[in-house]
Design a protein that fits this description.
alpha+beta; seven-stranded mixed beta sheet; 7 strands; Aminopeptidase
Amino acid sequence: MKTKDQFKIRLGLPESSHREMVDIFYEAFQQKLCPIMGTRERGVSFLQRYLNPEATVVAMDGNRVVGIAGIQYPGCHFFSPSLYDLVCEFGLLRGFLKIVRLRLFHSPDREGELYLKAFMVSSPMRGKGIGTNLLEAVSGFARSNGFRAVRVDVVDTNPDARRLYERNEFVAIKIRKCPFLCRAMGFSSAITMIKEIT
């Protein structure tokens, strides 16, 4: 069995691993993406165009991606399709409805904060310390780039993720309830958590 020290953490994703990142992302967020994207094929195709491999902190096992932290700060966004992109993909009316749902996951840039837009470890590799190592690397990136805090939103139906963040010094500061729009995506509220960087 590999120990966490045998996984390499790096900033940015190799171009050859882009599709692998998309597959891991889709697997992790499938319940939330299906109501927006429809089919898996369409979702994967859309994500391939709009996930930014440069806005990542990545855990690698050799040449294999095993964990991804998608980050956001002014001038750098992990995932940010525009209304125009959605209209081109889905048509005017459906595109507008999709952007309404996607706005549930939108978090504006805040000066001095690094936003953890997405965080995922491939399912066979969970429980091996990869998530903790990724969060430590994200905090290190934030510290070395002058951010005062790292912010993340976690849904109420993912208590394991919330516990992971709490173990890594994130503190819940706000709960956003949106039961009507989110019910189809499998959650009813999102908790905003902050880790102060010292």
